[in-house]
Amino acid sequence: MRFATYNVEWFDALFDDAGQLHNDDTWSARHDVTRAAQTEALGIVFTALDADAIMIIEAPDTHRTRDGVKALETFAAAVDLRARRAILGFENTTQQEIMLLYDPDAISVRHTPLESADAPRFDGTFAIDLDVDARQDKVTFSKPPLELAVTTAKGTEMHLIGAHLKSKAPHGARTRDQVMRAAIANRRKQLAQAIWLRRRITSHLNAKRPLMVMGDLNDGPGLDEYEALFGRSSVEIVRGETDDASLLYDPHAARALQRRLAAQPTTARFYIREEERYLQALLDYVFVSPDLKGLGGTWRVWHPFDDPGCWRTPELREALLTASDHFPVTLDIDV
Question: What Å distances lie between residue 258 and 165, 222, 226, 302, CA to CA?
């Protein structure tokens, strides 16, 4: 089976309130890309992926007058995907939902939000002392992770968690001091979300449940100068930091953590206008529990320049660049 995670930049802007595709020559929310061009590019990418399940990060918005599930299923029908059903967990207010698009002939899924004494449900509030001042900070998810119980056609039972941790970018800051304060505050909140997520992961591991954690962690080792201030990245927290029995595995994260000065895999590409250049980063992951790692899956970043298959297929290469500022990550595994 093929599992994927894909952050689709402003997917929501491609749909009207009735969940129908605009698919016209009006500009999309992506720079210099029309809605029709982004829709076509996404159709090419999703068709090439041909995944059994895709964790969509920044999926279409859901609120009182918009139905993101309907919008995503409309898209799947328009481009004739076998992954044609969508499931949403907790709605959020950011216009960027987390949803799973899946093939109902390959897997069955249900939303299974959990809670424990040390980790409330992801739509709740997490109390933690973030700055060692003996006072509990109250942390919430702007995008609550999506928790799913999955049964495959083969009969394998497992759990999926789709996550989109808070960005560390100091949005709205103007002066150097404002940028510093915002960046530190954002990293502190992101690390708290990672700790909250890790506690849920530990509960699954202790219960011997096969688990995948996938999505955009908005972090990786060495991505900003404030990591040293806190001693670790969100990726290290989510992966685990003790022994093999509690460590999640993603080969790209493992490589980045072991060889920080060497060339790293990347899953996102952003244009830095002030510097007139592109920044590439490893932000998107498909982590698996030790029991699933033992099945020997194959991971792939669908990078238009770094993946030979994508590079040698011009239509797919250009579609990946047009569709989003992130690239899909897939895991092929026998479950």
Answer: 23, 12, 19, 22
Tell whether the torsion through CA atoms of 107, 283, 219 and 99 is positive or negative: negative
What is the β-pairing status of strands 2-7 and 53-59? parallel
d(CA 146, CA 167): 18
Over the chain (335 residues), what is each successive 10-residue block's mean pLDDT?
98 96 96 97 98 98 94 98 98 94 98 94 90 76 97 98 80 62 76 94 96 91 53 87 87 85 84 89 96 96 97 98 98 98
Alpha-carbon span 20 to 65, nearest angstrom: 13
pLDDT at 136: 81
pLDDT at res. 2:
98
Listed by start position, the domains of the chain span 2-332
C-beta of residue 74 within 8 angstroms of C-beta of residue 15: yes
> Mind giving me the DSSP string for 70-95?
HHHHHHHHHTT-S--EEEE-S--SSS
Hey, what are 117's tokens?
């004494």
Coil, strand or helix at 312: coil
CA atoms within 13 A on the CB side of 223: 26
Supply 328's token pair: 């899909």
CA nearest to 40, candidates 311, 4, 97, 48? 48
**What Cα–Cα distance (Å) separates residue 293 from each residue in 18, 60, 257, 287, 307?**
41, 31, 18, 9, 23
- Is domain 2-332 in CATH 3.60.10.10, yes or no? yes
